[in-house]
């Protein structure tokens, strides 16, 4: 039996009192039926259909059976509460400082989703475009062409795509499991197993190449010469990761394409950027098997160093993997993760939370991820509060990039991993804090241009969304605090 969403009927029993007004209305319109037409098919009155569409009557077993027989609808697709994510997205959008301090009542938002779903969808799309436009304005300099405003950056599109998928891709998890099983037949050492499989299955040789001969590259796959050159500047952990990355493109191109076919933006640059990030996801999934990894993560309370030692990966790779633990029935703590350089530029960001990560840098100096540069290798915890009142627990620590010459020394970056304070008891790095005593929360923003806070001692820019109060008779901590 064909389902409403094209999925097979599982045969599970339906229970509960459920209102399905908007979905019922959409189903009727998709078939070009009037309320009277649907009522005739279901053996009820047109008035009853009208009441159901306005959520004044719940879905009865009789009507459910009629929908199954007359429209081929899987009950799970009809009664499943798919609006939770829309509600969360709307709630987050309404927290934008642009809308000021007033907030919609949750009942109003739920009513809008139930009775005007298309309007809510268009509003969220418009808000997303507005956010992209604002970020583009912020990153355009005096010599940049205004035409750049016409297109969102690939990084924004890919980040939103990952977030819309809860940063979890079961197709890649399955592919990684498949390759992992095949590699066990080659060698117990993942690096050697990957090299042997690349040679035997694809006729590709792996060559460790001098830094001077690699130019600025760390990895080069020459399809014609059937070679993968890896820079000798890479450590063993990153050599393994790079071979796993290439293996994803060689063996699971169809999986990558099936995922990127769902992108809303089909530009070539967007698709390629997304496939690169998906191949990185695959590499992490191959080296850190989901079930084993999440099990140990919970047992060690997300001790990153312990996880890195067990799975023979880097601190950064563990942080990345922790953002992907959103498998139904076996989820981990939802984390966000970003990587910044000394200038505050964000070079990597992944998110399974409601935290809004700035794309183009300029992150709040009150946030101690900048302070981490002063204490290399030390994990620095911090409790932070955003302007909308949401609170998070974060840890920040430096990571080192390969340095090949005097011109590229001090390639130090900072990683930051964070989660909602509601998960603090699950995270070992919060042990030093007594949550019952309400630890002090640092008042941060995502970006000075967007932050509405007044009297901030670190403010560097006038906010774009609001006017600050200026008193000529008073001088505060900054020139914006009058």
Please give a handful of descriptors for the protein shown.
single chain, 482 residues, alpha+beta, 434 Repressor (Amino-terminal Domain), Arc Repressor Mutant, subunit A, 6-stranded mixed β-sheet, 3-stranded mixed β-sheet, 18 helices, 11 strands, disordered N terminus
Overall description:
The protein contains 18 helices and 11 strands. It has 482 residues and is an alpha+beta fold. It folds into 4 domains: 59 residues, 434 Repressor (Amino-terminal Domain) (Orthogonal Bundle), CATH 1.10.260.40; 68 residues, no CATH class; 118 residues, Arc Repressor Mutant, subunit A (Orthogonal Bundle), CATH 1.10.10; 149 residues, Beta-Lactamase (2-Layer Sandwich), CATH 3.30.450. The longest helix has 23 residues. The N terminus is likely disordered.
Shape label: globular
Low-pLDDT regions: 1-16, 140-151
Briefly note the structural class of the backbone: alpha+beta
- Determine the mean pLDDT: 80
What distance lies between the first and last C-alpha atoms, to the nearest angstrom?
Answer: 68 Å
Provide the fold topology.
Blueprint: H1 21-30, H2 35-42, H3 46-53, H4 61-71, H5 75-79, H6 84-94, H7 106-115, H8 117-139, H9 154-164, H10 170-183, H11 190-202, E1 205-209, H12 211-214, E2 219-222, E3 227-231, H13 236-251, H14 253-260, H15 268-287, H16 290-299, H17 304-311, H18 315-322, E4 326-327, E5 330-331, E6 336-340, E7 346-351, E8 380-385, E9 391-400, E10 412-420, E11 442-443
């Amino acid at each position: 039996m064909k389902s409403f969403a094209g999925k097979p009927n599982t045969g599970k029993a339906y229970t509960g009192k459920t209102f399905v007004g908007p979905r019922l209305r959409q189903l009727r319109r998709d078939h070009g039926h009037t309320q009277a037409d649907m009522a005739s098919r279901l053996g009820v009155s047109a008035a009853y259909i009208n009441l159901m569409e306005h959520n004044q009557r719940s879905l009865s077993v009789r009507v459910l059976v009629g929908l199954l027989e007359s429209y081929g609808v899987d009950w799970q697709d009809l009664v499943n509460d798919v609006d939770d994510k829309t509600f969360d997205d709307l709630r987050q959008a309404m927290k934008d400082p642009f809308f000021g301090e007033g907030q919609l009542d949750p009942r109003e938002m739920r009513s809008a989703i139930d009775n005007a779903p298309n309007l809510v969808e268009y509003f969220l799309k418009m808000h997303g475009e507005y956010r992209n436009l604002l970020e583009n304005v912020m990153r355009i300099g005096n010599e940049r062409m205004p035409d750049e405003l016409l297109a969102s950056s690939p990084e924004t599109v890919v980040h939103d795509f990952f977030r819309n998928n809860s940063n979890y891709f079961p197709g890649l998890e399955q592919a990684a499991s498949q390759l992992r099983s095949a590699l066990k037949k080659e060698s117990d050492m993942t690096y050697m197993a990957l090299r042997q499989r690349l040679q035997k299955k694809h006729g590709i040789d792996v060559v460790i190449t001098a830094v001077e001969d690699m130019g600025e590259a760390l990895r080069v796959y020459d399809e014609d010469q059937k070679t993968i050159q890896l820079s000798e500047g890479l450590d063993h952990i990153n050599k393994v990761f790079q071979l796993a990355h290439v293996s994803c493109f060689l063996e699971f191109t169809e999986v990558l394409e099936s995922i990127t076919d769902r992108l809303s933006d089909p530009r070539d640059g967007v698709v390629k950027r997304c496939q690169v990030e998906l191949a990185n996801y695959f590499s992490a999934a191959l080296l850190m098997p989901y079930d084993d990894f999440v099990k140990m993560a919970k047992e060690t309370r997300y001790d990153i160093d312990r996880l890195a030692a067990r799975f023979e990966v880097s601190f950064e790779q563990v942080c990345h993997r922790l953002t992907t633990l959103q498998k139904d029935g076996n989820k981990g703590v939802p984390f966000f993760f970003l990587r910044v350089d000394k200038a505050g530029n964000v070079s990597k960001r992944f998110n399974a939370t409601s935290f809004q990560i700035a794309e183009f840098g300029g992150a709040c100096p009150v946030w101690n991820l900048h302070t981490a540069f002063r204490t290399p290798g030390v994990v620095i915890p911090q409790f932070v509060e955003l302007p909308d009142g949401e609170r998070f627990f974060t840890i920040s620590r430096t990571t080192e990039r390969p340095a090949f010459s005097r011109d590229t020394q001090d390639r130090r970056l900072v990683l930051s991993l964070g989660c909602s304070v509601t998960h603090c008891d699950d995270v070992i790095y919060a042990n030093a804090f007594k949550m019952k005593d309400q630890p002090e929360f640092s008042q941060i923003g995502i970006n000075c241009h967007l932050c509405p806070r007044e009297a901030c001692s670190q403010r560097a820019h006038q906010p774009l969304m609001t006017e600050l109060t200026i008193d000529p008779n008073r001088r505060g901590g900054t020139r914006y605090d009058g």
